[in-house]
Amino acid sequence: MDKGCIDDQTTTSETISTVAPHLTTLIPQKEISLCRVGSGASTVLDPEGGLEVEAQSRKLPSSRYKGVVPQPNGRWGAQIYEKHQRVWLGTFNEEDEAAKAYDVAVQRFRGRDAITNFKQIITDDKEATMEASFLNSHSKSEIIDMLRKHTYNDELEQSKRNRSIHQSIRTGLNNSSSGLSSIKPREHLFQKTVTPSDVGKLNRLVIPKQHAEKHFPVQKGGSSKGVLLHFEDNGSKVWRFRYSFWNSSQSYVLTKGWSRFVKEKNLKAGDSVSFHSSIGPDKQLYIDWKSKSGSSNTNPRSIKPVKLVEPVQMLRLFGVDISSVSSYTSNKRSNTERDLLGFQDCKKQRTINVL
DNA sequence: CCTTGTGTTGAG
DNA sequence: TCAACACAAGGG
User: Fold this and answer.
1) pTM of the predicted protein model
2) Which of A5, A71, A80, A321 is least crowded, fewest Cβ atoms below 10 Å from its Cβ?
3) CA A260, A213, A355: angle at the middle one, nearest 5?
4) Same-domain check for residues A193 and A282
5) CA–C1' gap, A142 and B9, in angstroms
6) pLDDT digits (tens, 9 = 90+) for A2-42
7) CA torsion, points A116, A122, A126, A130, in degrees to nearest 10?
């Protein structure tokens, strides 16, 4: 479909979550009566009276939203332009979903004052502020990646949750175990809704390609042996998983050790696991999970108030080739300029490929 | 086969 | 910058 700079097309079959809890505070700028013209391509959609058919003109209904373009199959595409080039933001079932995707992109690309389809009412809304910082903490390509895969809202919510964790930490709520500042600030890496096979007998978790390559050491091809990764959970328990690439399925997986995690956390299909890393130079990795219902993970087992001993020391266990990882994981901040470069590099096509 | 999203053009 | 349009390339 596309061979962009960093070609990748893990078709995450994400549920088409209705976009935007954050946009609920938004009001449509335009409320034009839907005056659909013509019909979708060869699909149904034949507006009243097939008379003035014009049948063959197959005119696609233009969108009333900025950055939204109709697709032949009745769906909607979102796109934004920058530097004379189109950046494709993905396709959506609903017109307004596409419009919201554009809004997200335009705010990331042109700042908070950019003209959007849905105007923001409150400017000091806490939610809006959080979203703004979320946008700024991710590169353009990351944001576009989320839009294309329809995971933007999940990630946004996840980041909000993370934030509150940090706050509770700062407020001293966490003199949990080792009396000292044992908990370090984390940054969200990615989240995955586990599939039936992820929690089944296969004893493995498939890491979506784009996330694996971005956050975890790459060792594709030859060294299929994999590496051991250490993750700390909420209760300071350290989990060791073998991480490797399966040539057979061309996928990155967590194998050995994973089933134990599934068992202990009682993970069910539909639940999600999220990965994090410490902010500092020590790339400690963390794993967290939440049930499908969304109930924030407060697993009785993993909360165990005082499981102190010396869990913190284990943090350093992640002694795998961090060197190769660091270049990936440490690209969170100064993304403003760098990602622009990476962006320009992709200008082979008229439309910039981001994934 | 169907869908995506790229190539391309012309209007604003 | 932007959307309209056509359709090639890819995925299923």
Assistant:
1) 0.51
2) A321
3) 130
4) yes
5) 30
6) 333 333 333 333 333 333 333 333 444 433 333 333 333 33
7) 10
Assess whether A56 (CB) lies less than 7 A from strand C: no
**What is the rounded CA–CA span in Å between residue A14 and residue A150?**
7
Give yes or no: residues A286 and A190 share one domain. Answer: yes
We report the CATH number of the domain holding residue A95 as 3.30.730.10
Nucleotides on chain C within 7 angstroms of protein Cβ: 1-7, 9-12
Taking only the tens place, the pLDDT of each residue in A116-143 is 998 676 666 788 888 998 998 888 988 9
Which pair of structure tokens corresponds to residue A308? Answer: 């102190």
CA dihedral A4, A9, A15, A16 (to 10 degrees): 20
* Rounded-to-integer distance, Cα A47 and Cα A38, Å: 7
Tell me the torsion sign for CA atoms A171, A174, A180, A185.
negative
Q: Which nucleotide is nearest to A1 (CA to C1')?
A: C10
Q: Which two tokens stand for residue A11?
A: 């078709």
